[in-house]
Amino acid sequence: MSYTILRKKQVAPNEFDIWIKAPQIATHAKAGQFVIIMSDEESERIPLTIADSDGKEAIRIIYQVVGTSTQKLSRLNEGDAISNCAGPLGKPSEIPTGEKTLVIGGGVGIAAILTIIKTLKEQSNHVTTILGSRDSEHIILEDEIRQISDELLIYTDDGSAGTKGLVTDAMKSLFEGGREFDAAWAVGPTVMMKYCSLVAKEQDLLIWTSLNPIMIDGTGMCGGCRVKVNNTIQYACVDGPEFDGRAVDWDILMNRQKQYLQEEQESEHICRLGLSHQSQNGQEESS
To answer: 170 with 195: CB under 8 angstroms?
Structure first.
């Protein structure tokens, strides 16, 4: 099967938004699930959350270039084919009906909350959304999320968009103002999800977090994505990727994420893929 890139655009520095032709995945994908992609036969397997689906032919993926494999993926353009795309994987989000919900997205994690918000609204939930990032350039999908949220708050580290501060500042402000919620979601950098969970725990608020440990096969066989939740070992690929953040052992997760830092740094020479490539604006650039 050919997984053709149907649309591609850059949405932030080093962040790309692509639609991939994958009918069998598109017809089954639900909020919270992910795919594992290989840009070519020699690439690593990259787990990426499904940001959206047309329900028939294509899925939407938004990713950040952070290493060798995502660099390879970023070099593919509309009409090019991805070697492999497996999914949908993981358990779908547990979507309530008719509740007051809080959804928090940070950085490229904003992409993962889009389909969660859409599904929450389809089930008649009231959705308050918080978007956070380092600066205005890295706030993605603002217009789309504003249209489907009942309320949208934006926080940036430097104050270049919305309110200056962290997403946890926004959470505390809502709680201090007497706001109550039945459930919450937080998706973003691990440290962000950890502190969102700590704030939610103070309010005894269920908060779903999408964990991103090292993952290889995506089927539970390799054990690489194991996490500790409620003092028991769980596997993010088949038991998650969403877990109640109040029960996650965040310190173990963050330590495991650092396990292959040296190997990742040493692999960066692979990004120098050759003599030259055509950039998106048609000009030749050195790799």
So the answer is: no
- All structural domains of the chain: 3-90 (2.40.30.10), 93-209 (3.40.50.80), 211-270 (no CATH)
- Residues in the chain where the model's pLDDT stays below 70: 1, 259-287
Q: Of 249, 136, 138, 116, whose CA–CA distance to 186 is shortest?
A: 116
Q: Could you report the per-residue pLDDT of 274-286, keeping only the tens digit for each?
A: 333 333 333 333 2
- Token pair, residue 88, equals 């949908």
Question: How far apart are alpha carbons 278 and 285 in whole angstroms?
Answer: 6
Q: Which residues pair with 128 in a beta bridge?
A: 102, 151
Strand partners, 81: 4
Q: Give the residue among 24, 80, 20 at the shortest CA–CA distance from 56.
A: 24
Tokens found for residue 139: 């706030």
Q: Which residues contact 176 (CB under 8 A, 6 or more apart)?
A: none
**Residue with the two structure tokens 């959804």:** 103
Q: What is the pLDDT of residue 41?
A: 85
- DSSP reduced 3-state for 110: helix
C-alpha distances out from residue 60 to 55, 146, 221, 241, Å: 11, 19, 27, 18
